[in-house]
Amino acid sequence: MNMKLPSFNVKDLMREAGTTISTQVSRVVQLTEEKLNLTNDKTEYDSNFEALIERQEATKNLTEKIIKDTEAILVPNPGNRVEDFIFEKIEKKKPQRLSNIEYLGLDLIEAGGTFGSDGAYGSALIKTGQAEQRLGQCERDFIANTGICFIQPLKKFLDGEMRTITKEKGVLEAKRLDLDAAKSRVRKARSLIGTQSKDGLSPEQTLEQAERDLRVAQSEFDRQQEITKLLLEGLGSTQSAHLRYLHAFVESQVRYFAQCNKIMNELQKELASLGGSVDAPKYEIVVTDEADSHRNINLQPEGLHYQRARVLCSYDAKDNSELNLVANEVIFVAECTPPHSDYMHGKQGLLKGLVPKAFLEILDD
After folding, report:
1. pLDDT at 279 over 70
2. Could you tell me if 323 and 346 are in contact, meaning their C-beta atoms sit under 8 angstroms apart?
3. N or C: which end of the chain has fewer CB within 10 A?
4. Which DSSP category does 330 fall into?
């Protein structure tokens, strides 16, 4: 059986390889000279094009940061993120691992079974463990939804449109270097007019060839710049899509927190029905906007009449229900409900808590 093999011209292949290597070396030399400010012949882009490039680089860097930060929230363990990345690259199924909250749920259930499910404490442990497991499942669903609706589309954007733009920018930079090299050859050929040729071509012929190469290089540069510019201008239209991804992420997060809140409220009611609850200190959470934060000390909470008081000497809070005090500072205080012989209710800006009466001097009548 006769097979017709393709013919190769080794000399042509070597010549093309040599030309490619020579071109690459020349570009590296040009870039090095530009970095060292050894040349003033660099072709500059117009201000509008430079602004498009800056926006593209900022979009790329900030999108990468958003993805990285979101992944760190969803999967706090860096080792797990690396493992997931490896499995994703080799196109294998990620391992099913339990989260910390799911491990807690399992251990609580095991402890409840060991201590006895017929007792109040054992029953409470089991119910809490089951709630923690439900929280773990909600967390798992939240991670999956966020990956689908937010992280994956942003990664697809970086791997698709952004990678294409980066590639075309690289081609444009190569065309710019070729254009600058062609300009340099024209200047050199013009300087040789009137001298004797060494390569068999007259200086006029050398100049004509150099100018012809310059026109080709300029044409290729202009064409590549226009292609790159169109891609850069198209980045603006991607923000509307990214906005939809962000809305989907926020909706997923709202749903996740709502599910968690419902589970814990139900657990709290179940535990209360078991009895044996102990009154715990309640902490007041104050939510104000930025404007309110500057005038918060003038606010009068409903049901409490605040007075100004000077702190006689510093005091370190014994627990989270008390405030730390600094000597000579002025705070607002009110009688506790019901009144307490040793403590008053204090307010330091946004902070509220108990303060000992012995450390205070009431200023208001």
Report:
1. no
2. yes
3. N
4. E
Q: What is the pLDDT of residues 54-64, one digit of tens each?
A: 999 999 999 99
pLDDT, one tens digit per residue, over 282-326 is 444 444 443 343 333 333 344 678 888 888 988 888 888 888 888
Spatial CB neighbours of 143, under 8 Å, sequence gap ≥ 6:
74, 75
Q: Which of these, 164, 156, 148, 150, lies nearest to 243 by C-alpha position?
A: 150
Confidence of residue 14 (pLDDT cuts 50, 70, 90): low
- In whole angstroms, give the CA distance from residue 329 to residue 46: 59
CA–CA separation, 149 vs 245, rounded Å?
6
pTM: 0.63
Whether the Cβ atoms of residue 231 and residue 165 lie closer than 8 Å to each other? yes
Q: How many Å apart are CA 127 and CA 115, to the nearest integer?
A: 13
CA-based angle 124:260:248, to the nearest 5? Answer: 165
Q: Could you please report the per-residue DSSP string of 180-225?
A: HHHHHHHHHHHHTTTS--SSSS-HHHHHHHHHHHHHHHHHHHHHHH
Return the closest-CA partner of residue 244 out of 163, 157, 160.
157
298 or 330, which is more confident: 330
Centre a 10 Å sphere on the Cβ of residue 172 and count the other Cβ atoms it contains. 22
Q: Which residues, 6 or more positions from 73, have their beta carbon under 8 angstroms from its beta carbon?
A: none
Tokens for 343?
Answer: 């403590």
Helices (H) and strands (E) in the chain, counts: 10, 5
